[in-house]
Amino acid sequence: MSSTRAPSAGRSRDGQGVLRRVFRRNRGLFPLGTLLLCVYQVAETLIPIAIGLIIDRVISPADEDALIQYGAFLIGLFIVIVVTWRFGSRIVKRVVENEAHRLRVEVATRILDPRGVRLRSRVGALLTVSTQGAENAASVLSVVARGVAALAAAIVAIGALLYINLTLGLVVIVATPLILGGLQRVSPTITQRASAQNSAAGWASALATDLVSGLRPLRGIGGEDMAAHRYRTQSRIALRAAVRSARINGLYTSASYTANGVLAVVVAGYGGYLALAGEISPGELIAVVGLSQFLPGPLGALAAMPRGIAIGRASSQRLDRILGAEFILTPGPLSLPKGRRDLEIASVSYKTLKGVSLKVEAGELIGVLSYDPNDADALVAVLSGRLPVDEYRGRVLVGGVPIAEVAPEHAQRALLVEPHRTDLFTGTIGSNVRAGRPEALDEQVEVALDASAARDVVTMHEEGLEHPVTDRGESLSGGQRQRVALARALVAAPSVLVLHDPTTAVDAVTEQTIAQGIAELRHRSGPRVQSTIIVTSSPALLSFCDHVVVLEDGQVARVSTHEHLAATDENYRRVVLR
């Protein structure tokens, strides 16, 4: 399970790969939606041309037959406009929303991959990328579809102006690329400002998430003012970034509309001059005026296209950093043996640990007491299987197989670590309890609720297991969250279960009930094939353990029963029986 790079590692994270994948995945519906929008825009372009033809060929000669023909043509254009707009817009909107969903799922899948990914982003920042970033990247599809449709309309309009008068057409042909080229020079700045805004907003969201999740401890130490000051500072940074991004976007938009408006005035004015000079007919003048009023729309869409792509590219860069992040672990080829599985920790050194060795036979209930909390944290981190093997020395074996060489999803079913600080998820008590084993039978859930003393958490609510749980379990007290999390670990029923201080938020009576429940469920009912390691200083939990391993100065100092250590070891008594 050595660290490895993702397949895309080593290349620049410019977001191009994400955008290419976005278009490749939608190569079916996206062209159809774009084609319909093109037809819609071309039909709109033909409206002023059709009106000009009606004036020249119907009204001036008073031709009733031509009136019917051109009238039917005009009605047909309006029907085409309605149909193509409705279905084209619907298809493009569907493609964008589906792609945003796919990107969100990709980000979540990557983050939740059992192999783990090396990410420095906080939870709030990841949330911003997976929501707003995914939407911005997917919106590039809409930007391109509408840009292509606008280009089709502009080509038809310019072609009509060229037909009416060569000079009129040339004015538009020359002015359009000059306008678009000048606006394109601002795109890199827009990308940078958009990226800075996304980053600042992500940090603000991450800080808000941290502060909300730690609100109770903050209140306990009187740290609300300091926390509020930190959030205000980061929020101001995000605000300044948003203002800078909005300023450049506003300047871009105003410059675009101004340039296009000036071009429309020039075209209409010159068309009026040509009509007065007798070089174009009244109908052609109407067509020129109509096209000059219509052109700012497509030209504005073309001018906005670089900005939309720049914003989408900035978001794609952040998505690419997540989707292309290195995996922490590499799946191994080995499988675990069936039946009894012992646990062996062989000469493990990590942080404060110094060559720790320990053997836990299948069926044993072992307690671990660490005089230094850092030793306990390091041991739990190694057993969690979330560390690449190049970050620690030694081996962890389950059933004689190095756990580092087993696929993470299989390893986690055999060796499960329930950390000291646990989180619940939005849903119900029942969905949280079954999170690690959705197929668990009702009887297994009931037994786990009793063993974890979580029964009263269920019975105190009318909905029982269907009682709603808010984000991070904030609707429950600390003790209730701890017991529900313990029930979740017990329902998962791994071969080896590691519990880190599972009863710090409950009273002494409940703690005794939990200690007895764990021993009964995993070690005294049925065959003794499951092993449990409890890292704790609780006398209630340690008294039910077969043996207690004492860690001191990063090493195994003593191994004995709780009763013997309590009777003979002064340090043990001081820490445990305080």
TrEMBL record:
SUPFAM superfamilies: ABC transporter transmembrane region, P-loop containing nucleoside triphosphate hydrolases. GO terms for cellular component: plasma membrane. GO terms for molecular function: ABC-type oligopeptide transporter activity; ATP binding; ATP hydrolysis activity. Keywords: ATP-binding, Membrane, Nucleotide-binding, Transmembrane, Transmembrane helix. Residues 32-305 form the ABC transmembrane type-1 domain. The chain crosses the membrane at residues 29-55, 67-85, 148-180. The keyword Transmembrane applies. It comes from the Bacteria. This is Putative ABC transport system ATP-binding protein. It comes from Hoyosella altamirensis.
